[in-house]
Every structure is written in C-alpha cells, then in structure tokens.
Specification:
alpha/beta, 16 strands, binds magnesium ion, single chain, 20 helices, Helicase, Ruva Protein, domain 3, Rossmann fold, 48% helix, binds adenosine-5'-triphosphate, 5-stranded parallel sheet
Length: 459
C-alpha cells in the first residue's frame, strides 16, 4: 500500500524532527521550516494532510491555512498549537482546519487525529473524482446520435441547462429522458449540488406527498418522527420528477405552489419552508389526454411546460442506431471486462430494420445480451434473438440501402419500381398490356415509366 503523504510545517527543528519520527512508520512525512516553504511545496506536490504550526515568523499558520483553503488543494489541515494559542486554533477551525493538537503532543492522540484526517482527505478526493466522472458520463459527448432530431434536442438542452427554468421531458419509454435530465443538471451551475430523482410511479400514491415535502411527527399513523422531504434535501440543487403523469391531483397542486412561490409546508405542519430547487419533470404519458380526463392539472402542465423537450422514438431516427450500437459495443466491453466485438453487416441490417418498441434501452440490452452470449469476436444474425431474425428479415435490399444512408429515398424508389416492372414483364412474357394489368396500371403509364426508368423492351 502507498503511504499517505504528510507535510509538517514548524519553525522549530526539534518539533519537526520528533513529528517525523512519530509519523514515518505509517506515513510519508516531509518537513518545511516556514509558511513560505510550505506553500511552495504545496503547489508542486500533493499532500493528504498538513500539520501546521500557528506561531511562526513570516507567514503564520492562519495565513497559510487561508491560502490552502482558497486554492482548494484538497489537503486536510491540522493546526499545532501551544496552549496559549488554543483560541486561535478555534478560529482556525472556522477557516476550515480539520482539527488541532496542543503541544506537547500525546503521541496516540496525534496519530488518531492524523489518521482521521488522512481518511477524510481520501474521501474528499474520492468524491471529487466521482463527481468529475459523473459529470463526464453526462457530458453531451456521451449522448449519442447525429440525427437532426436528436441534435435539435441537444441544442435546446444546452440552452436551458444553465438557467433555473423548469423543463418537461417527454418521450416513449427508453428514449433517454433520464439521461437528458442528468445532462441538464450536470451542465447547470447546480452541478455540485444534489440531483434527486423521484419516480412518482414507484412510490405509493398516499406516501408520495410526504416523500416530496416531508412530514411532521404524528402527521399520520406511521409518522413517528419528523422527516424532511426531498424538496428540502434537494435545496440548491435539482429535483427530477420522473413519470410525473402518475402523480395525483392533490400532490400536483402542492408542486405547483413550490414552482410558483418556492415554498411549501410539510404534511401535518403549518410552518412554511422556503427552498431553491430546480424542477425537471419527465413523462411517457400523453399529458394532454390527462388534462382532458381530469387526471392532470392544466395549470401545472403549463407551468412545467415552460420549456419542453421531446425525445423522438428510435424508429424515427434510424440513422442513430449504428452509432449507438458502436457506443454500446465499446462501453459494454469495458464495463464487462471482455474484448470488443462487432456485428456482421447482415446482423447490422437486421438491427436497423427492427422497430425498437423499447427504444435505446432495448437496443442497449440487446447489445449487451449478444456480447455475453456469443462466442468469438464477430456476432452474426444467429447471435440475435429469434424475433429479430424473422419478421423483419425480409426487407427489400433497396430499403436497407436507404436505412444505411447509402442511397437517397428517390433513388431507392426508382430502383424498387424498376425491379417490380422487370418482374411483371418477365411474368407476362413481355406482354406489356398483361404486365400493366399485373401492376394495376394502364399500358400507357407502364410505357411512360419504362422510358423514364430506362427499361428497354426486349426484342
Ligand atoms: N442518445 C443516447 N446515447 C447514449 N445512451 C443513451 C441514449 N439514449 C438513451 N441511452 C441509454 O438508454 C438507457 C435508457 O435511457 P433512459 O433511462 O434515460 O430512458 P427513459 O426515457 O428515462 O426511459 P423510461 O421512460 O422507461 O424511464 C440508459 O441506459 C441510457 O443511458
Ligand atoms: Mg426513465
């Protein structure tokens, strides 16, 4: 295991040396004789913990502490104080010091505090690393799709993300609503504050209100203790209300009040609580239908719908299918720790023609399933589920060309017509009147089409 690094800052050589002796078995200590030297070291190297003397000539401990905190260097600082400077140590705590120890030290106590600070520094670093990883995961680059429809979505998302505007995200199941909600949060000034997701369909109707707004003790039979709601916990951040179409009208009314006045009361409580929360809502239901049958309040609808983002179904943007497949092939290989695999062109054709009722989620699951269940580095049509191999497998080659983006629609239609006419002519043994009958048209129109498409009469 790597030893954690500790910076000892004290102007007295004796103190530096004894601290080094005490710490060197478990940690990797470095010593600095002044505040200036400490700051120099801190800008070029990383330390988990800084042991910082308060009284030093030149820059004193408090000034060094302030600089460290300003520059958010990620180290935890423990102040070293003589008994007479304990008061100063307390004000150091207010400036963000982790703790303080009084000289002369009790070795066990010192080691205990250092270890706690080391753990805390590791935690802070971990949280920072996770946060930037999460941010990357929801960066726009990880939302795949070049179709004009998805690009339009991303354009409006990047415009509203930095504002506090309420956003309503609609789209069929699996189209990426939650992914977009997260991208909005992580591209807003609230990115370092909580993003809380509430799935309104997953919480029993009678509990949803107290989940959102909290309750006072005794508000209902099971409310033994007072409990804050998600609106309070999300203060300063974002609340994502997923499947908002499932919320009952009474709760909808309370949501409307928070959106309009930034305040609410807990269930069974009279006190008004103010919060600063951005709301993003999503639904795969038709809220217009809900308004017509009275299950969704129209005032809330218009309040939520300030900006709405509609995610088109995958079958309406087939050009995104192949890029998504490649994205998932790469990511799943990494996540599952297996070598990358690829689909044969024939398998890709089948995937592109399928209707994807479960949208991107279904595609993602299918890619993962195929990778796990297939042998070898290439996956053929036989590695696809049966329903994909049949049913859709008979699409016309011209259709495949269009879907792959190799041919324009008009050309494909011409090709298709040519082929039909040739087949009809063959079947009618080149009798044009009969061929026209087979095609359900007149001989004149058939002749016109043959000329236009460059089909020469045999013989
Ligand atoms: N454009 C995209 N690029 C990359 N991954 C995507 C994209 N769209 C969706 N996904 C992935 O597909 C899966 C389903 O997306 P998500 O959960 O956001 O859908 P949803 O619309 O919220 O579905 P539901 O309505 O069922 O809750 C997720 O794993 C998500 O990361
Ligand atoms: Mg969802």
């Amino acid at each position: 295991m790597v030893k954690r690094r500790i910076l000892i800052v004290d102007d007295e050589p004796g103190v530096r040396e004894s601290l080094r002796m005490v710490l060197k078995e478990r940690y990797e200590p470095t010593a600095a004789a002044s505040g200036e030297e400490a700051l120099r070291l801190l800008t070029s190297e990383t330390f988990d913990v800084v042991l910082l003397d308060i009284l030093m000539p030149g820059l004193d401990g408090l000034e060094v502490l302030e600089r460290i905190k300003e520059q958010t260097l990620g180290s935890q600082v423990i102040m070293l104080t003589a008994t007479k400077t304990v008061k100063t140590a307390v004000s150091a705590m207010k400036l963000g010091a982790f703790d303080y120890v009084t000289k002369p030290f009790d070795v066990d106590e010192l080691l205990l505090i250092v270890e706690r600070a080391v753990q805390s520094a590791a935690l802070v670093r971990e949280v920072e690393a996770l946060r930037s990883e999460v941010g990357l995961r929801y960066s726009f680059d990880s939302i795949i799709g070049n179709s004009p429809k998805l690009q339009d979505v991303l354009k409006s998302v990047s415009m509203v993300a930095p504002l506090k505007t309420t956003v309503l995200i609609t789209g069929e199941s699996g189209t990426g609503k939650e992914l977009i909600a997260k991208a909005i949060h992580y591209h807003s000034p609230r990115a370092n504050k909580p993003l809380i997701t509430i799935n309104c369909a997953a919480i029993p109707e009678n509990l949803l209100e107290s989940e959102l707004f909290g309750h006072e003790r005794g508000a209902f039979t099971d409310a033994y203790v007072k409990k804050p709601g998600q609106f309070e916990l999300a203060d300063g951040g974002t609340l994502f209300l997923d499947e908002i179409g499932e919320m009952n009208p009474a709760t909808q009314a309370k949501i409307l009040r928070v959106l309009e006045q930034s305040e609410f009361t807990r269930v069974g409580g009279g006190q008004t609580i103010r919060v600063d929360v951005r709301v993003i809502a999503a639904t795969n239901r038709d809220l217009h239908q809900g308004m017509r049958d009275g299950s969704f309040r129209s005032d809330l609808y218009y309040r939520l719908n300030v900006v709405s983002v509609h995610l088109p179904a995958l079958r309406e943007r087939r050009e995104d299918i192949v890029p998504l497949i490649h994205h998932f092939l790469r990511n799943k290989a990494r996540d599952l720790g297996i070598p990358e695999k690829a689909f044969t062109n024939e398998a890709l054709d089948l995937l592109m023609q399928y209707s994807w009722p479960g949208n991107v989620r279904e595609l993602e699951n299918l890619v993962e399933r195929s990778m796990v269940l297939s042998h070898g580095a290439t996956m053929t049509r036989d590695d696809l589920p049966q329903y994909l191999q049949t049913g859709n497998g008979h699409a016309h080659p011209a259709q495949q060309c269009v879907l792959r983006g190799e041919t324009r629609l008009a050309e494909a239609v011409d090709l298709f017509e040519q082929e039909l006419i040739r087949n009809a002519l063959t079947q009618a043994q080149n009798n044009q009147t009969r061929a026209a009958e087979l095609l359900g048209t007149t001989r004149r129109i058939l002749k016109y089409k043959m000329d236009k498409l460059g089909i020469v009469e045999p013989g």
